[in-house]
Design a protein that fits this description.
17 helices; protease; hydrolase; Rossmann fold; secreted; alpha/beta; Alpha-Beta Plaits; SBT
Length: 757
């Protein structure tokens, strides 16, 4: 499989590309396959599992070579085979599955303050040796090690528990690692087997990041303190990652053609072996079952106590679009923060409309300029309004402000307008983009406006006999309200695999996020952009994911005994879904209140999460029982768990019994659904009473018992929830509510989502 970046949403829309084959052997097409082996079935005649793997491979192909062998994320190997060889290998003893890989594409000065992680709350997460001994592993496009965000000034020795290393390669020496950047590896075997050798004139065959995405995510999670951080003067301030005292280890698994699952699995395999504490993965893959490679690798990480945070995807606002939905993964959607970069579109009729821009350069003349719609200045009758390269007629554009419709790379449109002689640009959203606008470091004075303003401006430029306009860049503003707002691009539920597990889990900052950047590309990512910046501002669930990775490291530093499920529980049950005035978080895609299908439990609130009162914990066996409830057979369970686990035929397994911190009910004919949960007391002795809310009389929620009394820390109490629903509601209907436990000091909240199928 190949995975995709979940990155800045405008230039990096995600597309699942199912690979064909390009290498040919003896006239037969080859592809890369990931082979899962039952390690426990290795014959005694072999001294090591790798010898057994090699023998199994040789039995079907004398020429095939192993790309990787896997010891931790899975038991098995990756290789190139013809379809016939793959079928033959599947019949060999000890082979569980042979699956063709796919390709997926890659999906802060302000956010720590926005999250409440300022100096006033420093005591909640003290700078102890524990916090600086934690290592966050980032699977992405690599690292720009010279960035100040990875300075090791003030750091002590590398933790003795760390087993990783720094790999040298093109434009990268082992000496570039330090006490902050403790590990850097790269994985190109799957990429090179599929595509051919890395073109080292275009990208570095090493951990070096030539794309920017990996440097941005790594510094968001754990970047060191950098004063005076900004992008072209915007968002100026002191930048720091969320867990800024933690160490960073990078695993470069993504290359220009994409991210191949054999490389991703190899990166996860090494990260587990290296002993990372948190894995941050801003990639997504297929959503067919829980045997996808990231899910399988994450299961192995979870067993080792490693918290795995993944981006939810940038496929919003479509329903059922959420990715990385295995229940042992924490799935993160994206919201805005309280900072913006306004830029005015001023029209000749006296009307002004606010958009956003990161343009830095000479302002337009202090007068109104001729204004033209790109569709009326184009040599392309079909796509002229989009300002595509080569479509604008210079004689009609020169000296004017040009209105372009959004779609595709926004910065490139400005490049096209400027090349044709235009002086400025107004970008207008169409219905597909709605009101969501994202700031870009444009090449000329430009502003991007939402659909409503765009429709008005378009009507003006098309109907006024002498339209004029101007653009005024207004810089950086903070304390924007309301905030957060759910990003339209953030992928949504219901869960496309298991509707009774609510996903995404929560949301975190993911819009217009400032973080470190590569020195190999300008802020737009375009080859023609010769500007070089130390920090860049981009958007996507790729940006929200490392926020939660950093928060997990902070919680782990205070509660080293907590499991990954306990950390997620603390983040979810303390998340908020209303503003201070009591109104619910708004969804920018609809302008209406967001629901748990969009925001999960809500927006992270780390200063409360450190002391959640109660937690919902989960063990490996709990997840295996969940797979039994899904009727997974022994082979599928072995792919995921790498071990022999047999579902008890006499036991009644239920998805409703997975001890998850949220509730999702898929109404499929019955009118009563019963769920059970167990909470662990982490907040001292106390008595918790339950409060239930349901937004409609069509759903009645009953909790037994209604009071939970705890005498000591780590004491466990169970309760049951009965949902009585009107099963006659039409298919596609949804209803929401909540279940909250409180002892007067803590509020332990769980969202409820009901859907009728």
């Amino acid at each position: 499989m190949t995975y995709s970046f979940l990155s800045s949403t405008a230039p990096f829309f995600i597309v699942f590309l199912y690979l064909g084959s390009c290498h040919v052997s003896h006239g037969a097409q080859q592809a890369t396959y990931i082979v899962h082996m039952a390690k426990s079935q290795m014959p005694s005649s072999f001294d090591h599992h790798s010898l057994w793997y090699d023998s199994s491979l040789r039995s079907v192909s004398e020429s095939a070579e192993m790309i990787y062998t896997y010891n931790n994320a899975i038991h098995g190997f990756a290789t190139r085979l013809t379809p016939e060889e793959a079928d033959s290998l599947m019949t060999q003893p000890g082979v569980i599955s042979v699956r063709q890989e796919q390709r997926y594409e890659l999906h802060t000065t302000r956010t720590p303050l926005f999250l409440g992680l300022d100096v006033h709350n420093g005591g909640l997460f003290p700078e102890t040796s524990t916090s600086s001994n934690l290592v966050i592993g980032v699977l992405d496009t690599g690292i720009w090690p010279e960035s100040k965000s990875f300075s090791d000034e003030g750091y002590g020795p590398i933790p003795s528990t760390w087993k990783g290393e720094c790999e040298a390669g093109t434009n990268f020496t082992a000496s570039l690692c330090n006490r902050k950047l403790v590990g850097a590896r790269f994985f190109a075997g799957g990429y090179e087997a599929r595509v051919g050798p890395v073109n080292e004139s275009m990208e570095s065959r090493s951990p070096r990041d030539d794309e920017g995405h990996g440097t941005h995510t790594a510094s968001t999670a754990a970047g060191s303190v950098v004063e005076g951080a900004n992008l072209l003067g915007f968002a100026n301030g002191t930048a720091r990652g969320i867990a800024y005292r933690a160490r960073v280890a990078v695993y470069k698994v993504c290359w220009q053609p994409g991210c191949f699952s054999s490389d991703i699995l190899a990166g996860m395999d090494k990260a587990i072996e290296d002993n990372v504490n948190v894995l941050s993965i801003s990639l997504s893959g297929p959503r067919t079952d829980y045997t996808d490679d990231i899910a399988v690798g994450a299961f192995a990480a979870m067993e080792r106590g490693i918290f795995v945070s993944c981006s939810a995807g940038n496929f919003g606002p479509s329903p059922f679009s959420v990715a990385n939905i295995a229940p042992w993964i924490t799935t993160v959607g994206a919201g805005t923060i309280d900072r913006d970069f306004p830029a005015l579109a001023i029209l000749g009729n006296g009307k002004n409309y606010t958009g956003v821009s990161l343009f830095k350069g000479d302002a337009l003349p202090a007068k109104m300029l001729p204004f033209i719609y790109a569709g009326n200045a184009s040599n392309n009758a079909t796509y002229g309004n989009f300002c595509i390269s080569g479509t604008l007629i210079p004689e009609k554009v020169k000296g004017k402000i040009v209105m372009c419709d959004t779609g595709g790379n926004q910065a490139r449109k400005g490049e096209v307008v400027k090349a044709a002689g235009g002086l400025g640009m107004i970008l207008a959203n169409l219905a597909e983009e709605g009101e969501e606008v994202q700031a870009e470091a444009h090449f000329l004075p430009a502003t991007a406006v939402g659909e409503k303003a765009g429709d008005i401006i378009r009507r003006y430029v098309l109907t006024d006999p002498n339209p004029t306009a101007s653009v005024v860049i207004q810089g950086t503003v903070v304390h924007v309200k309301p905030s957060p707002v759910l990003a339209a691009f953030s992928s949504r539920g219901p869960n496309p695999i298991t509707p009774n597990i609510l996903k995404p889990d929560l949301i975190a900052p993911g819009v217009n996020i400032l973080a470190a950047w590569t020195g190999a590309l300008g802020p737009t990512g375009l080859a023609s952009d010769t500007r070089r910046v130390e920090f860049n501002i981009i958007s996507g669930t790729s940006m929200s994911c490392p926020h939660v990775s950093g928060l997990a490291a902070l919680l782990k530093s205070v509660h080293p005994e907590w499991s990954p499920a306990a950390i997620r529980s603390a983040l979810m049950t303390t998340a908020y879904n209303t503003y201070k005035d009591g109104k619910r978080i708004r969804d920018i895609a609809t302008g209406k209140p967001s629901t748990p299908f969009e925001h999960g439990a809500g927006h992270v609130s780390p200063t409360i999460a450190v002391n959640p009162g109660l937690i919902y914990d989960l063990t490996t066996v709990d997840y295996l029982d969940f797979l039994c409830a899904l009727k997974y057979n022994s082979s599928l369970i072995r792919i995921i768990s790498r071990g022999n686990y047999t579902c008890n035929p006499s036991k009644n397994y239920s998805v409703a019994d997975l001890n998850y911190p949220s509730f999702a009910v898929n109404v499929d004919g019955s009118d009563t659904y019963k769920y059970t949960r167990t909470v662990t007391n982490v907040g001292g002795a106390g008595s918790y009473s339950v409060k239930v809310t349901s937004e409609t009389t069509a759903v009645k929620i009953s909790v037994q018992p209604a009071v939970l009394n705890f005498k000591e820390v780590n004491e466990k109490k169970s309760y049951s929830v009965t949902f009585t629903v009107d099963s006659s509601k039409p298919s596609g209907s949804n209803s929401f509510g909540s279940i909250e436990w409180s002892d007067g000091k803590h509020v332990v909240a769980s969202p409820v989502a009901i859907s009728w199928t």
